[in-house]
Design brief:
single chain, Lipocalin, WD40/YVTN_repeat-like_dom_sf, Outer membrane protein assembly factor BamB, signal
């Protein structure tokens, strides 16, 4: 479905809604909802030639199962990497060498990827099941939630935080899977089918929602600390008013930033939720942040660099249009993004120019690159797991 232009998918969802099939709000399966950047039906921009100023190398590569039409997020914890394929085989690899340390079969089809900490590994399924294992792959517990799980669970402070497709967030006890709290909110008539989960930081859970909202929840209790508006729905039709935070927010010590489809990019004070600045940059793929800049992959595939303090535009790289690029990863002097054809691009932090490029297995990379101690990790739709370094 990811090759179908978004306008037809949205139109189809509207027809279904008008026919009366919407009870709790329709989940619109867009061309980007499960596999990154917006699929407009445009032909991906041709790769431009450039003089490399750095080199991307694969330090190791392994295979896990393919992902089908889902995005499967790997997890990096200390010196270990956990990854899973759609058919449910979970593997642990050495982060340094890529050596497979163990593999287990969960017996379920996995729909959101892996979450882990130093003691527990968790995955979710399209049937709303959460399965937890210890770090040697031994099963610990299972729990059933209210609907499909399209994002990787997050594990912190003995709590497993899981987001379900019906707009709920669950806090589960990491010891036995029993529910500690639940947060839920009303959903609009139409919303994007998104693999965005939650971010856990500073004892809080941060999550974006349909309708352009961003919330901060207490990790221990699930109580809401604040709610902020990333973007307000605009337009007269339900299609025009789809304004969802369909990617993960990013956090540092003092601020949190998020971006919305058909909306804008905004940063807030992390303690109060007060707006610091906003820019009209729409994204479904997501964003990244370093000590001075916020980087956004917009809905057409351009990469924007915005001043972290003011939101002022610093540069824009527009040579990756319609390549369905991932959210960026900030890597010191460089920014990494991946695309629909399995290429990984390295951009200069200073001006957005191309610094390096490397091909993987030719299939789409949907989840954003993940930082490693040395370099970063990408997982392809066909099940390739690549550890890349910058030289």
């Amino acid at each position: 479905m990811h090759n179908v232009p978004i306008r037809w998918l949205l139109l189809l969802a509207t027809i279904f809604q008008l026919a009366g099939c919407s009870g709790m709000g329709e989940k619109v399966s867009t061309g980007f909802g499960l596999w990154g950047g917006k699929d407009t039906g445009e032909k991906p921009a041709a790769l431009v030639e450039f003089k490399p100023t750095a080199e991307l190398k694969s330090s190791w590569q392994e295979r896990v199962g393919g992902a089908g039409d889902t995005v499967l997020f790997p997890a990096v914890v200390s010196d270990g990497i956990y990854a899973v394929g759609l058919e449910g085989k979970i593997s642990r690899f050495s982060a340094d060498t890529g050596k497979q340390q163990w593999i287990i079969d969960s017996g379920r089809k996995i729909s959101g990827g892996v979450g882990a900490d130093s003691a527990l590994v968790a995955v979710g399924t399209a049937k709303g099941e959460v399965m937890a294992f210890d770090t040697k792959g031994q099963p610990l517990w299972q729990a059933r939630l209210s609907s499909e799980i399209l994002s990787a669970p997050q594990v912190a402070n003995d709590i497993v935080v899981v987001r379900t497709g019906d707009g709920r967030i669950f806090g589960l006890d990491a010891r036995d899977g029993k529910r500690k709290w639940i947060y839920q909110r009303a959903m609009p008539a139409l919303s994007l089918r998104s693999n965005a989960g939650v971010v856990v930081a500073h004892g809080a859970v941060f999550a974006g929602f349909a309708g352009g909202k961003l919330v901060a929840l207490n990790l221990a209790t699930g109580n809401m600390g604040w709610e902020a508006t990333v973007a307000l729905p605009r337009g007269t039709t339900e299609l025009e008013r789809v304004t969802d935070v369909s990617s993960l927010p990013v956090v540092d010590g003092r601020m949190i930033c998020a971006t919305a489809y058909q909306g804008r990019t905004a940063c807030f004070d992390i303690a109060s939720g007060n707006l610091l600045w906003a820019r009209d940059v729409s994204s479904s793929a997501g964003l990244a942040m370093d000590d001075r800049t916020v980087y956004v992959s917009d809905t057409r595939g351009a990469i924007h660099a915005l001043d972290k303090n003011s939101g002022a535009s610093l540069w824009k790289q527009d040579k990756l249009l319609a390549r369905q690029v991932t959210a960026p990863l900030a890597l010191g002097r460089y920014i990494a993004v991946a695309d629909v054809q399995g290429y990984v691009h390295l951009l200069s932090r200073e001006d957005g120019s191309f610094a390096a490029r490397i091909a993987t297995d030719g299939s789409q990379i949907g989840a954003p690159p993940v930082a490693l101690n040395k370099g970063f990790l990408v997982q392809t739709r066909n099940g390739g797991l690549y550890a890349l370094t910058v030289q």
